[in-house]
Every structure is written in structure tokens, then in C-alpha cells.
Amino acid sequence: MTLALKSSHTAQRLETRQSAPPVNGLPLSLSNVEKRFGALSVLEKFSLDVPAGRFLAVVGRSGGGKSTLMRLIAGLDKPTSGTVAIGGETVEGLNPDVRLLFQEARLVPWQRVGENVGIARGPDWQETARATLRDVGLEGRENDWPSVLSGGQKQRVALARALVSQPRILLLDEPFGALDALTRIEMHRLLETLWTARGFTTVLITHDVAEAVALADRVVVLREGAVALDIDIDLDRPRRELADPRAVDLQRRILEAV
Amino acid sequence: MAEASLAGSKNDTSNVTRKSPVSDTASGAGGVLWQRLAPWALPIAILILWEIASRSGLVTARLIPAPTSVAAAFWRLLLDGSLLYHTLASTQRAVIGLLIGGGVGFVLGVVNGLWRPAETFLDSTIQMVRNVPHLALIPLVILWFGIGETAKIFLVSVGVFFPIYMNTFYGVRTIDPQVVEMAEVYGLNRRAMILRIILPGALPSILVGLRYALGFMWLTLIVAETISATNGIGYMTMNAREFLQTDVVLLGIIVYALLGKVADLATRAIERRVLSWHPAYQGQEKGTP
Ligand SMILES: Nc1ncnc2c1ncn2[C@@H]1O[C@H](COP(=O)(O)OP(=O)(O)OP(=O)(O)O)[C@@H](O)[C@H]1O
Ligand SMILES: [Mg+2]
């Protein structure tokens, strides 16, 4: 209860601090969501509200059901019981306002980078793909094959592909997990910039508590199918200070809950 | 033959593979020349020995004609036009059979790969029929179609059907489900999914099927033409056998080998073109601008 009050308070503060951010995101709400695979219960009475335009990080152990949670939000799977709602409407299937970055980049190997970004072949897709690739720092790479890209570049392409359709909710399922530390920091900055500019609601799943504290304005720990900790990250942006004592303290508290 | 040339092409794709654990004693410019010529040394030596053996009467020229008399036969048949005539007759059968059998195999492979009910209905039957060596059908085929063109085209079609079907089916089935799921998330319709995701993804496997099919194609044709034909390379060699023209028989065998090689090179060229996205072909793409 106190946590919920506190988080809405932070949301207001964030909005006043950033110079007129585009409120483009959609609110996300899960109530009493339960998900079972046969006898295995992955999520139990899971409830979570994410206001529009917020950046939420979900931390949890491997196999704890984080990807499952993402798939429910994206409409790739149906909950066993309970509801997932986006913008007030119950999720029944895939939603073009929601885009998902998987743990793997999942590029189509036989399509060039530009064709991958414009996979939905919307109007002027080539031009849009080129522009979006520029936004993610891959200007002029549209004619390369995916196989020549590095891991970080592949995830940038996947990010561009997600951004092309102007999503209002962006789900990120450990997209930076396989990257080296430096590339990872680069991707964090890129994501933060894009999020600030475009204002989509973001849910980032990660193993990395430091990553969660560096990027999110709220962190949720998922343990044994339920929310074990829900904590606001009330640090100024941009968060370049790695050794900020407040950040270190937050990381410690999250790690204890995981 | 195919294996040997495959290994060869692998070696010249990248200089990484040249650093093999096998030591290269020759080096420098002379080494390069040696590497170019070395593969030809043994065949040429064999040809020379063979020629000598044949001329000196060490082997019966009637059974094993000297390379020069095979070359002479080649020249003779080229000039009187019969070599071209028989080669074209064989090639025509091969191509028609490949188009029919390969086309049906491809369509059934795609349909069964995409649609479970079709697979349940058809696949076990196809697998059962596959175990029948198609050349065993020859007596039956002659009864059905006589000894005309239809019989030979039918046999070739059956021969190429299975490798194309199996590999197309396998290729469609083994598409990365994660990529398919991603494409679904991005709202691709059925048509776009098949044309842009599934068929290109199955293509490497389909081309493997095509290579096997080409092998079966020539094999079937050789047998079919030697049994019943009035033209074609198979007929040419059988006819020559009756007149003890061993040089022509040998020439026919060489022509078959060359046709097989040409078909193989053609598929390889197709692979290089359509699989340029594949990491295995990227070295070659850079090598040939
Ligand atoms: N389709 C499925 N069928 C059966 N079990 C599944 C399925 N999907 C996930 N599970 C199970 O659900 C549990 C949670 O999986 P999930 O992929 O959500 O974990 P995760 O938190 O994303 O783990 P990681 O951090 O390693 O990616 C695992 O035990 C997994 O085996
Ligand atoms: Mg996961």
C-alpha cells in the first residue's frame, strides 16, 4: 500500500523533471495472474500495475517465470487464470502496440538488416527502416546480412525492428544478457535515450541487479511466482555514477530479496 | 567425385582453412603453381601409362581402348552430330523428369510440412513407397507405358521425387520456431510467412535435396536408356557394345560423368546465389564480386 502511494508520487516527480516528455505509453495491469504448465505452477496470484510511460525492471532467478510473464503481457500465451490488461483492455492476443525484444535477437538470417527492421512491410518501410537504424546507431547497415553483425549490433537491429511501429509498450526479455560489459553500457544509454524521447512504457527483465538500478524507475523482484519486493529507484537521470552509494544500497536490498 | 571437389572448394574459400595441421613443404610462387597442378598429376600419369599399355599390347585394346582412340571416337561422333543428338535426347528426358518429379515432391513437401492433416494422411504412405527401389519398377513400368518416352520420364520422376520431397519436408519442418514466432508477433500474414520466412528458410535443405535428386536423375536415366531406348547416351553405349565399339562405350560413360558434373556445378552456382546470406557462403560472395 505504502509502496503504491510512493510510486505514483515518483511518477509525478518524473513528469515534472523531464522537459515535457511525450506521454505515449499505455498503462499495464496484471491482476491475480496465475500460470501453470501442467503440474508446474510458474506464476501464482501475480498482481502488478505499471502506469503509462514508466520504466519497470523485473528481477528474478533463472527459471523463475520472467519470460513467461513477458509472454503473457505480449499476448503470446494465455494466463491460466486472472487478467492482463493493456490501456484498460484485457489482452486477448497479439497487440501491435506492444513490442517484445527476446533473449535472442531473432533476426531472420536470409533477410538483410533493413528487411529485418521493416519485417512488417508497412508503408515506406525502407525509408523508415533506414531512419530507425540511424536512431539505434547502425546508419548505413541496412544492406548487410545479419550474420556479419556482432551480438550487440544484432540486438540493436532487433530494437530498431521493435521501434519501427512506434510501440506504446516495449518489453525487453534480457536482451543484453549475452553482451560484454562495455557493449551493455552502450545499450543501456541507447535504451534510456529512446525511452526518454519516445515515452513508451517499458518492462525490462534482467538477471543483473545493477542494470535494473541503472535503468528502471521501479524494480520488482519475482520470486516463487509472486512479487517479493517492489521498490522505487528514486535516482536522478542520467545515471552515470556507478558507485553512487544510494544505488549500491538499492542493489543490496534487491539482491537480498532475489 | 562430388566429395573431392567439395573439400577442394572449402579449402580455397578462406585462408583460415589453409592453416591446416597438414604441413606444406612447398612454399612461395613455385608452391602455388605446384598446388594448382598437383591434383592433375596423377590422372595425367594414369592416362599416359594407359596409352602406353594399350599401344604396346599390354592390355587388349578391344576391351580397354587407348585414351587417344576414345578422343578419336569423340571427334568422330561430334562431327557426324550423333553425340549432340544423343546427349540432347538424354538431357531432355532428364529435365522433364526432374521438373515433374521435383515439382510434385516440392509441392507435397511444402504442403505436408505446413499442414499436419496432410502429413498424417500422406507421409506414412510416401515413406512406405520410398523403400521400394524405384529401378525395381522397370518391368512394371514397361508393362504400363511400353518402352516409349513416358516410361523413362516416369522413372526419372519417381527417382527425383523422394529426395526433393524428403528434404523440402524436413526443411519446412525444421525452420527455427523462434523466428516464426517473432514473425507472428510482427503480424505477418500466412502468405508473407510462407514466402518470406518458411520457403527461404527451407531452401538450404531443398537444395541438398536437389543435389541428391540430380544424382538419382542420371542414374535412373542410364539404366532406363540401356534397357529400352532408340536414342540417348544409354542407347548409344548399348548400341556400340553390340558392335564392340569399346571406345564409344567409354565415351558414353565419360559423357554421363560430365553431365553429372555440369548439373552439380549448376546447383552449386544456384546455392552461391540464393544462399549468400548463409555464413558458409559469405567468404565466396566476397571472393566473386
Ligand atoms: N511452454 C512451456 N511448457 C512447460 N514449461 C514451461 C514452458 N515455458 C516455461 N516453462 C517452465 O516455466 C518455468 C519458468 O520459465 P521462464 O522461461 O519463464 O523462466 P525465466 O525466469 O525467464 O528464466 P531465465 O532467466 O533463465 O530466462 C521454467 O521452469 C520452465 O521450464
Ligand atoms: Mg527467460
UniProtKB/TrEMBL annotation, chain A:
Ranges of compositional bias, category Polar residues: 1-21
Keyword Translocase found: yes
GO MF annotation list: ATP binding; ATP hydrolysis activity
Chain ranges of the ABC transporter domain: 28-250
Domain of life: Bacteria
Region feature (Disordered): 1-25
PROSITE patterns the record matches: ABC_TRANSPORTER_1 (PS00211), ABC_TRANSPORTER_2 (PS50893)
Aminoacyl-tRNA synthetase found in the keyword field: no
CDD domains the record matches: ABC_NrtD_SsuB_transporters (cd03293)
Keywords: ATP-binding, Cell membrane, Membrane, Nucleotide-binding, Translocase, Transport
Record SUPFAM superfamilies: P-loop containing nucleoside triphosphate hydrolases
Recorded family membership: Belongs to the ABC transporter superfamily.
Protein name: ATP-binding cassette domain-containing protein
From TrEMBL, chain B:
Record key words, sorted: Cell membrane, Membrane, Transmembrane, Transmembrane helix, Transport
Polar residues composition bias: residue spans: 8-26
GO BP of this protein: alkanesulfonate transmembrane transport
Chain positions covered by the region annotation Disordered: 1-26
Listed GO CC annotations: plasma membrane
Topology of the protein relative to the lipid bilayer: Multi-pass membrane protein
Start and end residues of each ABC transmembrane type-1 domain: 87-267
Superkingdom as given in the UniProt entry: Bacteria
Cellular location(s): Cell membrane
Pfam families: BPD_transp_1 (PF00528)
Entry-linked InterPro entries: MetI-like, MetI-like_sf
TM ranges: 94-115, 127-147, 153-172, 193-223, 243-263
PANTHER family registered for this protein in UniProt: ALIPHATIC SULFONATES TRANSPORT PERMEASE PROTEIN SSUC-RELATED (PTHR30151:SF38), ALKANE SULFONATE ABC TRANSPORTER-RELATED, MEMBRANE SUBUNIT (PTHR30151)
Protein family (similarity comment): Belongs to the binding-protein-dependent transport system permease family.
Protein's job: Probably part of an ABC transporter complex. Probably responsible for the translocation of the substrate across the membrane.
Protein name, as recorded: ABC transporter permease subunit
